[in-house]
Design goal:
This protein is mostly helical and 532 residues long. 74% of the residues lie in helices and 1% in strands. A two-stranded antiparallel sheet has the order 1-2. Helix 2 packs antiparallel against helix 7, helix 5 packs across helix 10 and helix 6 packs parallel to helix 20. The two termini are 39 Å apart.
């Protein structure tokens, strides 16, 4: 992630000189030229740790070779607009190397009762399947954060399933790629500053295709061979649907059109970020199903996959034929008028902010007093932070805002950790109160963000993606990932961080209830730690 985040700004500066700029046209949704250099950051960010950590055998060597080939062809295309057939050359070179030199191919297919298929069929099938996955991700890269987010969710499921089966190499490849994607998404959330281009999308599709085969055919053949349909998810259904439409309308199979799922959602009136969130949600459902149904029958797994895809496309077709629009009208309907009236009511606007501020303040001070133990190192750290925050507040609000944010985040981290590690006895049996508190905080924070007079705090699809990942981790935390208490700790931290960011963005004075509570909690932590 660090490598990716460091490389992308450098590539951003040189993109105009080397022609790696994505210019607007009738098929695209962006209105200004955008550098398409993010793929370089993703690939290098992923490959460097792989080269350091992976034991290189024939399969891994072939994969690394293929990844570099696709990066070269992808960057070449991003700079010079290669034709589809030239790109296919790079895709087939990478896939053939993995299958025939790396000896990685499909041996077990759904409904075959674990009877291996002959290599004369399995190897060509695998080449075509990997090339298909490369193009599925490539074609899904149509909205800000879409291809990266979908790939990240799929890689998360692959990581978990490979971890359970001891597939270290698969885990390393998947996690390294996740890091590259996270570094890229920092610059690709709507409105995007950079696109991944073919250099990134082809690498992600290739990695997903290779890992799907490695996981189900080598690492854990006991997994249902139909499982890749779930953890690879929506991009497969999308590209098959697009090809079917092009064949039906007698169009060129490989000529770009605006009939992908994300294009159709935009045509129905969904905003850019709404379309991304809808697709994230469907992909997350498939990923969760893959994690929960790894050893179920092929019929059940494909039934779930085809059922959800059929429902999705049926709803799209019905909406398109009926003329349904997501934001129909001029915004003067009864609900719109009611929401507008509520927003004009300053009491309604200010109450969520006040509730969020008071809720955070009570949590900080309450944690400082309720934690049954404050270790000495926490006490010393809190004392230092107390002194720094006091100086920070005395010397003015507009100085070192990032420094203020850091102190507040650390103070919240202290409070959450100490209260979860050393809770009072009565709190252990008060789960309802904990859920109620965080539920109220989430509602107040959400309303505050939605109806704030000054839109300083922006929630992006990347924030939604992070929350999806946390929820998925929570669902599987009873397994090998770890104790659910630590998952709850992370969930609480994320909620508190978002809420505190909202409160900080709305602050008008440096001395207020929130900063005062942070100062007070650090003082109590310090005094209790010194007393140990």
């Amino acid at each position: 992630m660090a490598i990716s985040m460091a490389i992308i700004p450098l590539m951003f500066r040189i993109a105009p000189r080397i022609g790696m700029i994505d210019k607007p046209d009738a098929r695209k949704v962006h209105a200004v030229p955008i550098p398409r250099v993010g793929g370089v950051g993703i690939v290098i960010g992923a490959l460097v740790p792989m080269l350091i950590l992976l034991p290189v055998d024939a399969t891994i060597g072939a994969y690394l070779f293929g990844a570099i080939v696709l990066l070269i062809f992808g960057v070449w295309d991003d700079a010079c607009e290669l034709g589809h057939y030239v790109k296919f050359i790079g895709q087939f070179i990478a896939s053939l190397a993995v299958v025939y030199y790396g000896d990685l191919h499909v041996s077990y297919l759904p409904f075959m009762d674990m009877e291996p298929v002959p290599e004369s069929f399995g190897k060509p099938f695998t080449v075509i399947a990997i090339v298909g996955m490369i193009n599925a991700i490539n074609h899904s890269d149509g909205l800000d954060g879409l291809a990266g987010g979908e790939s990240l969710l799929s890689l998360g499921a692959i990581t978990y399933l490979a971890h359970l089966a001891g597939g270290t190499s698969v885990v390393i490849i998947a996690v390294a790629t996740i890091g590259g994607i996270f570094g890229f998404l920092r610059f690709n959330s709507h409105p995007a500053k950079v696109f991944m281009g073919d250099g990134g999308s082809q690498f992600l599709g290739f990695t997903l295709g290779v890992l799907a085969v490695m996981l189900t055919q080598k690492v854990n053949p006991a997994l249902s061979p139909a499982l890749p349909a779930l953890f690879l998810g929506l991009p497969i259904a999308d590209i098959l649907s697009v090809f079917a439409q092009r064949i039906y309308h007698r169009l060129n199979w490989f000529r770009a059109t605006k009939n992908h799922i994300h294009h159709r959602l935009l045509e129905l009136g969904f905003h850019h970020y709404e379309s991304v969130i809808i697709i994230y949600s469907i992909q997350a459902f498939f990923v969760i199903a893959a994690v929960l149904l790894p050893y179920e029958s092929d019929a059940l797994i494909l039934g779930v996959y085809l059922g959800v895809c059929s429902l999705l496309f049926a709803m799209l077709v019905a909406a398109e034929k009926s003329g349904w629009h997501a934001h129909h009208g001029d915004g003067t309907g009864r609900i719109a008028r009611m929401l507008g009236t509520l927003r004009k009511n300053h009491v309604f606007v200010r109450v969520p902010h006040r509730v969020t501020e008071i809720g955070l303040s009570l949590f900080l001070v309450g944690s400082a007093f309720m934690a049954t133990n404050v270790p000495r190192d926490f006490g010393w750290s809190a004392g230092v932070l107390f002194g720094l925050l006091l100086l920070r507040l005395l010397f003015g609000y507009h100085l070192w805002f990032l420094f203020l944010r850091l102190i507040i985040y650390v103070a919240l981290g202290f409070a959450v950790y100490l209260l979860n590690s050393y809770p009072p006895g009565w709190l252990l049996d008060a789960d309802f109160l904990v859920y109620l508190y965080f539920g109220v905080l989430v509602v107040a924070f959400g309303l505050g963000v939605r109806y704030a007079e000054q839109k300083k705090f922006q929630v992006t699809p990347l924030d939604y993606l992070v929350l999806i990942i946390i929820m998925i981790v929570g669902l599987i935390s009873g397994g090998e990932i770890g104790n659910s208490r630590w998952v709850m700790l992370v969930v609480q931290l994320i909620i508190l961080f978002y809420a505190s960011e909202f409160v900080m963005q709305q602050m008008r004075n440096r001395w207020n209830a929130f900063t005062g509570s942070v100062l007070a909690s650090l003082a109590v932590f310090a005094l209790r730690g010194f007393a140990m």
